């Protein structure tokens, strides 16, 4: 594993000390992976309870009902979120909580997108128990962790632009994010209206708000911007 510092104009928010991380939320739709990870964390960090959620939507509902965890471990591909969408959405709910992306996909473009979206780190599902625990502890101490051998694709200025774009996408409401996802799938307003059971006029109102928030003039531009940070596409 290597460290990578995400830079910006503002100083990074203080991260919790690893010893103060007592409540963790794992968001992963694979029961065996989720249970094994929860058991590892309980044993390695002396935790009595590790919260789990099988989807991004379930995680958001749990956070609203039970409060913010001290740290989050997020699977890259969930039933209702792929790519950087999970981090972008959770960052809106948990601006100060370290979020770790975990995946078997170690493509440089995906790692860059996740880090730009606000991940504290990106780790492989194939890590040994010792490497996993060490990486999480370092992240909870404030380090930014990426896989060994990872080389950022973008220059620093482009990384900052990508991070700023991710922050703009994070201002979208859940409904607006659903509509944007359907736009990226090539759906027309009438189809979006049918899929979400809302009036076509409401769809148009949301699209206007989306365009304003992400500073896009056309639907094609909105799709390009979403694709540039791998918002919905993981592969």
From TrEMBL:
<feature type="modified residue" description="4-aspartylphosphate">
    <location>
        <position position="75"/>
    </location>
</feature>
<protein>
    <submittedName>
        <fullName>DNA-binding response regulator, NarL/FixJ family, contains REC and HTH domains</fullName>
    </submittedName>
</protein>
<dbReference type="GO" id="GO:0003677">
    <property type="term" value="F:DNA binding"/>
</dbReference>
<dbReference type="InterPro" id="IPR051015">
    <property type="entry name" value="EvgA-like"/>
</dbReference>
<dbReference type="InterPro" id="IPR000792">
    <property type="entry name" value="Tscrpt_reg_LuxR_C"/>
</dbReference>
<dbReference type="GO" id="GO:0000160">
    <property type="term" value="P:phosphorelay signal transduction system"/>
</dbReference>
<feature type="domain" description="HTH luxR-type">
    <location>
        <begin position="165"/>
        <end position="230"/>
    </location>
</feature>
<dbReference type="Pfam" id="PF00196">
    <property type="entry name" value="GerE"/>
</dbReference>
<dbReference type="InterPro" id="IPR011006">
    <property type="entry name" value="CheY-like_superfamily"/>
</dbReference>
<dbReference type="InterPro" id="IPR058245">
    <property type="entry name" value="NreC/VraR/RcsB-like_REC"/>
</dbReference>
<dbReference type="InterPro" id="IPR016032">
    <property type="entry name" value="Sig_transdc_resp-reg_C-effctor"/>
</dbReference>
<feature type="domain" description="Response regulatory">
    <location>
        <begin position="23"/>
        <end position="140"/>
    </location>
</feature>
<dbReference type="GO" id="GO:0006355">
    <property type="term" value="P:regulation of DNA-templated transcription"/>
</dbReference>
<dbReference type="InterPro" id="IPR001789">
    <property type="entry name" value="Sig_transdc_resp-reg_receiver"/>
</dbReference>
<dbReference type="Pfam" id="PF00072">
    <property type="entry name" value="Response_reg"/>
</dbReference>
<keyword id="KW-0238">DNA-binding</keyword>
<keyword id="KW-0597">Phosphoprotein</keyword>
